[in-house]
Task: inverse folding
């Protein structure tokens, strides 16, 4: 029933996370596509699925085709495409799975990439970001610990709440003829 509401997703980002749960496994998958966020849990021991909606950060809702990397409890989102009017962007977002909170960094990618992809190194210390810029393949490396520093990000949550309330208030205004 939950998935039928998500049938309009064209470009989605599926993130697979597998946790050890006591003696069994709990598989989790997260799907993000513009303003849609869905958290799916599958318990192998009980053969059961659970679905949860995830609020997507306002500044990420307008984007598609972003790169992402899952690092422990966090998912980092790099760049994205905002349509013809916005184009490719250089923003970086972070989602905390346990706190269910979004953050947008003050720091940006050095260039905007088309078709971005991120690869996390085996030792979880570096991210390799690949993409296309000015019709040429580009690659750069960044350290994971640079994206984990608290002082380099700001909480987007309160700003998102203000924006959502403003939208709701605007929708409640009576139409005047």
Result:
């Amino acid at each position: 029933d939950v998935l039928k509401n998500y049938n309009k997703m064209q470009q989605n980002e599926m993130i697979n996370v597998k946790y050890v749960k006591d003696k069994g496994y709990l598989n989790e998958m997260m799907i993000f596509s513009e303003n849609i966020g869905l958290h799916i849990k599958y318990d192998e021991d009980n053969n059961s699925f659970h679905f949860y909606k995830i609020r997507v950060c306002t500044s990420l809702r307008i984007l598609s085709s972003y790169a992402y990397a899952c690092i422990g409890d966090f998912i980092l989102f790099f760049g994205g495409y905002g349509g013809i009017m916005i184009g490719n962007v250089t923003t970086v977002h972070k989602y905390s799975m346990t706190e269910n909170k979004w953050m947008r960094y003050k720091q940006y990618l050095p260039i905007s990439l088309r078709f971005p992809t991120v690869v996390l190194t085996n030792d979880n210390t570096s991210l390799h970001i690949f993409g296309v810029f000015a019709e040429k393949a580009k690659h750069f490396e960044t350290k994971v610990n640079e994206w984990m520093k608290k002082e380099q990000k700001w909480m987007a949550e309160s700003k998102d709440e203000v924006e959502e309330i403003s939208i709701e208030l605007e929708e409640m205004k009576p139409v005047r003829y």
